[in-house]
């Protein structure tokens, strides 16, 4: 309860909050993380290739099969972490910057979400550029209007983060009074580098099962994020 009270007190005392979220936030919703035992990459010798621009361009069938079978969890529902962050928007200026591509923050009702690595449910045709519903993509990788190959608008290995996403993320970090890192080892660049652009007056909390280290003063809470947010 002490950790809950610490975060509650920090939230109560500020106006602008940024949550930086990772795979650990969505695991309780039934979406596996990437590298842990039983995670998405288990059993694959070169999983990064399967999620690369090279695979999409050179072997679109291989890319499509992997993404369709392993990445989509349309029945997954937001858990207490997503819902609490959305709830806080009623009284606070909240921005969520997430590594996750599952769209669960949006499903929970959060309005200001920066999908740092894109969103699986935003799909478009590479030939004509038209937006395509994810439900159509899951039926066929080919656009029924022009025959082009459809892709989800996510950042693949070999691709860069858009300038707009970077600039919007940096702006949010500069304005935040409170930064809360949740469910991520915070090692993947450039996501982890966002901390360098923080408001240096901001208080920083991290909630993760394993301690993370950053080049800034931090209140580290080694705990199950779901259990903590259920009590907030």
Automatic annotation (TrEMBL):
One of its GO terms (molecular function) is histone deacetylase activity, NAD-dependent. Residues 1-232 form the Deacetylase sirtuin-type domain. It is an enzyme of class 2 (transferase). The keyword Disulfide bond does not apply. It holds the Pfam family SIR2. Keywords: NAD, Transferase. Gene3D superfamilies: SIR2/SIRT2 'Small Domain, TPP-binding domain. Its EC number is 2.3.1.286. This is protein acetyllysine N-acetyltransferase. It comes from Listeria fleischmannii 1991.
